[in-house]
Design goal:
Number of helices of chain A: 10
CATH superfamily of the largest domain in chain B: Succinyl-CoA synthetase domains
CATH architecture of the largest domain in chain B: 3-Layer(aba) Sandwich
CATH topology of the largest domain in chain B: Rossmann fold
Strand content of chain B: 15-25%
Strand content of chain A: 15-25%
Shape of chain A: globular
Largest sheet of chain B: 6 strands, antiparallel
Number of helices of chain B: 15
Structural class of chain A: alpha/beta
CATH topology of chain A: Rossmann fold
Oligomer: heterodimer
Order of helices and strands of chain B: HEHEHEHEEEHEHHEEEHHEEHEHEHHEHH
Strand order of the largest sheet of chain A: 3-4-2-1-5-6-7
Largest sheet of chain A: 7 strands, mixed
Distance between the termini of chain A: 24 Å
Largest interface: A-B, 69 and 55 residues
Shape of chain B: elongated
Number of domains of chain B: 3
Helix content of chain B: 25-40%
Radius of gyration of chain A: 19 Å
Number of strands of chain A: 14
Number of domains of chain A: 1
């Protein structure tokens, strides 16, 4: 099994005629994903690699089931695109665009929640369930994605889209395939944080362990540690913390928008301490992750 | 982007939060004039974007305009935590009875703004929350209008405030929360929020932060405050090297070759992307390397951009070699980065085989990329070599000077 998406997931791309989105459409189709349509206002009636383009989301959802939408429009148009997807009954909204004001992110997430929809991102590369489907551009060209991602028992949650593929590649090379990899987004507020996705992985019998890629800034790691400490989890979790050098440079912004350190709890040293305290392993190197995962899986079996 | 206190107070006053009479002065003459207009006792506060003003001597009281002039003269010359003041705020001294705290931030767990209220103002709220949690109350509120003022009433009332104070504090909290929403702020703080002898409330100090992403939508406010696009207010002003990095990034709309941050090292970094750069930078330092810069490339930058960035880094005095490292790339093309970097090295008058310590970018179009690197004799590695190992090799080469 997988989480969020599987081989039957139908989805659309909002902003499909944009340069990046055209590539993404090609890559998703090549991977075997069920990309059923695209939306760009004023471009209705055209097609992108054979995928029909419409002016409105409603034109597609009124005719067929659409499980998810990937939003790849300029920052100023993202909030309304998300409203449109959610209002038309789409339950999974993946936002690729970065540099959206935090207020608008909060608004679209609040709106989605009220309608029972889930947001992944913003500032993410999407979701990939190896061998089943990919919603978004993660992994690049289909041939490259198949090389880095293989089906298997490991779930990945990552604040960096690029590092998701790096980690998947390391796992695959060590014979550890993945159930689903989620690029959760690099912004200060994202639709689905680690602790919100963990229950989905727990409910997936095929997932046996989790790898988490984290960064400075925000309460997401502390939230995960608290969740695991209070409720426990059947899944061994191995985390990697990037940006340790930022602890020495408060107030500077590196990497993603979400890395800005606004308090002591945002530093990597504080986050690592909390993760360890919750029984989550913290790898020193990406290359160490597969070994630690295998060791933790061995403990579970034993 | 943090606002100066005088700017924050101007924003609050416009939205109906009471502030003391006064204004910002840029010279002792101006300070004296404002003090005379205000009349009576005044407080003079250094306008810097850092804490610890009081301790550093950046806050003084004056009974006469002449005294105000003398204090302003000293404050305007006083550097605080390495910052020269933007000006000196001259305000009527307020007879304070009690100090409160009012703040609004985003709660990334709830994914909503949260208003924070305390009846222990004037000190750091994190300290109050740690030592006296019963004196701190929080209330989330919706990001959709219309604003629900009752939530602020519940918040204030939860600490036992009632009578006339309840209405007055509810109004201040509501105005602060609405200012936060209206101006794309990520922090809006009034501390202390003072109750005066006559029972009225006034914002004695304020800290407002606006995120970069909100600046386009807040152009009118920023223009009104006289804050130009070039004023980034980062932890430190950008260096000429960083400004040139931003120019390289802006030279072409394709991909990213930017967010260049200058360091004092000998190993130039052409690294990416967002998370990859953080990981590589940690690895270089862990292996004893001294990076000359931080940067992020990604989103498939053009040859021109990768070339421009490489030339910029190589032009920095003290850079001995460069390392070119990224995570397994999806949409960035290995061959295009290889071509751009090699072009940059050659145009700078160096031999790529000697100047590029290591090239480790696996992923899209890697076979084409590796062919180019081979042609120029550049030491490269594929995905079987971890990022950290590539970083180690680069550091060793620089150390060996080979």
């Amino acid at each position: 099994m997988s989480i969020l998406i599987d081989e039957d997931t139908t989805f659309i791309i909002q902003g499909i005629t944009g340069r990046e989105a055209v590539n993404m459409a090609r890559e998703c189709l090549d991977y075997g994903s069920k990309l059923v349509g695209g939306v760009t206002p004023g471009r209705g009636g055209r097609d992108v690699h054979g995928v029909p383009v419409f002016d409105t989301v409603k034109e597609i959802t009124s005719k067929q089931r659409v499980d998810a939408s990937v939003i790849s429009v300029p920052p100023a148009f993202v909030r309304d695109a998300a409203f449109e997807a959610v209002e038309n009954g789409i339950k999974l909204v993946v936002i690729v665009t970065e540099r959206i004001p935090r207020l608008e992110v909060a608004q679209l997430i609040e709106f989605a929640r009220r309608h029972g929809a889930r947001v992944i991102g913003p500032n993410c590369l999407g979701v990939l369930s190896p061998g089943k489907s990919r919603v978004g551009g993660m992994g690049g060209a289909a041939v490259a994605a198949r090389r880095a991602y293989q089906p298997g028992p490991i779930g990945i949650m990552s604040r960096s889209g690029g590092m998701t593929t790096e980690i998947a590649n390391a796992l695959t090379a060590a014979g550890l395939g993945q159930s689903t990899a989620v690029s959760i987004g690099g912004d200060a507020i994202v639709g689905s944080a680690y602790a919100e996705l963990l229950p989905l992985f727990e409910a997936d019998p095929d997932t046996k362990a989790i790898v988490v890629y984290s960064e400075p800034g925000g309460p997401m790691e502390a939230q995960l540690a608290k969740y695991v400490k209070e409720r426990g989890t059947r899944l061994p979790i191995v985390a990697f913390m990037a940006g340790r050098f930022m602890d020495e440079m408060p107030g500077m912004r590196f990497g993603h928008a979400g890395t800005i350190v606004e308090g002591k709890a945002d530093t990597t040293s504080e986050k690592i301490a909390r993760l360890l305290d919750a029984g989550i392993s913290v790898a020193e190197e990406i290359a160490d992750i597969p070994g630690i995962v295998k060791q933790r899986l061995g403990e579970v079996k034993g | 982007m943090r606002f100066y206190e005088y700017e924050a107070k101007a924003v609050l006053a416009k939205r109906g939060v009471p502030v003391a009479r006064g204004g910002v002065a840029h010279s002792p003459d101006e300070a004296e004039r404002i003090a005379r207009e205000v009349g009576g006792e005044v407080v003079l506060k250094s306008q810097v974007l850092t804490g610890g003003r009081m301790k550093a001597g950046g806050v003084q009281f004056a009974s006469t305009p002449e005294e105000a002039r003398a204090h302003a003269d000293a404050i305007l010359r006083l550097e605080i935590n390495g910052q020269s003041p933007r000006g000196v705020l001259v305000e009527a001294k307020s007879p304070v009875k009690k100090e409160f705290y009012a703040g609004v931030i985003y709660d990334a767990v709830a994914k909503l703004p949260v208003a924070i209220f305390s009846d222990m103002g004037g000190i750091d709220i994190e300290q109050v929350a740690e030592e006296h949690p019963e004196h701190v109350a929080r209330a989330h509120f919706s990001t959709f209008q219309p604003f629900q003022e009752f939530r602020m009433k519940e918040l204030v009332a939860s600490l036992g405030v009632s009578g006339n104070e309840l209405g007055a504090l509810t109004r201040v909290m509501s105005k602060l929360a609405q200012t936060f929403l209206a101006h794309g702020l990520t922090l809006a703080e009034i501390n202390p929020l003072a109750q005066l002898e006559d029972g009225s409330f006034i914002a004695l100090d304020s800290h407002l932060d606006m995120e970069d992403e909100a600046r386009d939508g807040q152009a009118a406010l920023l223009a009104e405050l006289g804050i130009g696009k070039e004023e980034t207010r980062q932890a430190r002003p950008p260096t000429p090297f960083e400004i040139r990095g931003a120019e390289v990034d802006a030279s072409d709309h394709r991909g990213v070759a930017g967010r260049v941050v200058e360091f004092d090292g000998n190993l130039g970094c052409v690294i990416g992307a967002g998370g990859g750069s953080l990981t590589i930078f940690d690895a270089l330092r862990k292996h004893g390397g001294r990076p000359a810069n931080y940067c992020e490339i990604g989103g498939n930058p053009s040859v021109k951009k990768a070339c421009g960035l490489t030339k910029l880094i190589l032009s920095k005095p003290g850079v001995e070699k460069i390392c070119v490292i990224m995570n397994v790339v999806s949409n960035t093309r290995v061959d295009i980065v290889a071509r751009g970097v090699i072009k940059g090295v050659v145009e700078s008058g160096y031999d790529p085989a000697e100047k590029i310590a290591i090239f480790r970018i696996p992923g899209s179009w890697e076979d084409e990329g590796f062919k180019i690197l081979e042609k120029y004799g550049v030491d490269y590695c594929d995905r079987t070599v971890p990022m950290s190992e590539a970083a180690r090799r680069a550091v060793e080469k620089v150390k060996a000077g080979a």
